[in-house]
């Protein structure tokens, strides 16, 4: 499988390059990044998709939400499947992804690790079991180079918990501006940034005299790269549509 890697010079991009080198059935044939010369790669790197004179089997994106327009334009023109791992997209961007997925296969996941996807299932079960009697707060911790906050994963976790409550919960991002008591319909979401923390997510269920915490700790970026490769292998065999980790987990 020939991969075009958008954001190839970033922290994740460089780990993906190394992990792909260990695979036999997949290679990076081109990269796109803002500063193509910033890293030494053994494939050509371009400033934009317009520099590409050949096609790949799949576009993998670990970059910034601002890149989305160019990615979808190229992907739709060339009918290339896209794996979107970048986080921080707004609602408009998500709509354009849904529209593009009517024409090409797109896989989107804010967290490609296996553990977080089990955590999501566990916290939904906990939320259904504990109901409104327990307050729910999510804390995420990441490295000091992360641009978006809160993490895409924290938002995904909150949305999944909210499904259990039929959308009745309200997301509260930090509490500085809220000089009032906590309402039971809130899900608090809090972001910590520091050092080289790869990625940690904890969901706290705080009840009367008891607390349940469910946590996931990413100890390396390789877990995301491995997930991306599994998702890529899955995606290239799909019809147009929007796919996510649930589709992948059901296929392995
Ligand atoms: N889904 C998942 O499992 C995971 C998702 N992520 C997400 O992946 C994204 C990248 O993370 P990370 O590698 O740590 O971030 P980095 O900032 O280290 O890397 C991003 C790279 O993309 C480049 N870039 C910026 N804008 C564009 C653009 N328009 N087109 C092409 N490249 C661009 C950056 O260049 P420059 O530095 O010059 O701006 C940089 O080289 C984030 O959104 C992060 O949340 C991360 C880990 C796992
Ligand atoms: O930026 C990161 O590093 C990560 N971003 C993703 C997110 O925003 O959820 C996933 C992972 O936690 C690492």
TrEMBL record:
Localization (cell): Cytoplasm
Catalytic reaction(s) noted: (S)-2,3,4,5-tetrahydrodipicolinate + NAD(+) + H2O = (2S,4S)-4-hydroxy-2,3,4,5-tetrahydrodipicolinate + NADH + H(+); (S)-2,3,4,5-tetrahydrodipicolinate + NADP(+) + H2O = (2S,4S)-4-hydroxy-2,3,4,5-tetrahydrodipicolinate + NADPH + H(+)
Binding site for (S)-2,3,4,5-tetrahydrodipicolinate: 143, 152-153
Keyword Cell membrane tagged: no
PROSITE patterns: DAPB
Ranges where the Dihydrodipicolinate reductase N-terminal domain occurs: 1-111
Pfam family, one: DapB_N
Listed EC numbers: 1.17.1.8
Protein name: 4-hydroxy-tetrahydrodipicolinate reductase
Taxonomic source organism: Koleobacter methoxysyntrophicus
Gene designation per UniProt: dapB
């Amino acid at each position: 499988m020939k991969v075009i890697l958008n954001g190839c010079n970033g922290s994740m991009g460089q780990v993906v390059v190394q992990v792909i080198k260990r695979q036999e059935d997949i290679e990076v044939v081109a990269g796109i990044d803002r500063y193509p010369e910033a890293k030494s790669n053994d494939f050509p790197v371009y400033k934009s998709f317009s520099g590409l004179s050949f096609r790949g089997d799949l576009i993998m994106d670990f970059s910034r939400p601002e890149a989305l327009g160019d990615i979808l334009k190229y992907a739709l023109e060339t009918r290339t499947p896209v794996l979107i791992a970048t986080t921080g997209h707004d609602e408009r961007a998500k709509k354009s992804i849904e529209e593009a997925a009517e024409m090409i296969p797109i896989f989107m996941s804010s967290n490609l690790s296996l553990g977080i996807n089990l955590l999501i299932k566990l916290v939904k079960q906990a939320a259904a079991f504990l109901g409104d009697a327990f307050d729910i707060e999510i804390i995420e911790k990441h490295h000091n180079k992360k641009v978006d906050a809160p993490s895409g994963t924290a938002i995904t976790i909150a949305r999944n918990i909210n499904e259990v409550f039929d959308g009745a919960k309200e997301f509260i991002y930090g509490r500085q501006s809220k000089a009032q008591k906590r309402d039971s319909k809130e899900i608090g979401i809090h972001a910590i940034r520091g050092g080289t923390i790869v990625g940690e997510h904890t969901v706290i269920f705080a009840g009367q005299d008891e607390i349940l915490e469910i946590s996931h700790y990413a100890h390396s970026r390789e877990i995301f790269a491995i997930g991306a490769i599994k998702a890529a292998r899955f995606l290239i065999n799909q019809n147009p549509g929007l796919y996510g980790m649930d589709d992948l987990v059901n296929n392995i």
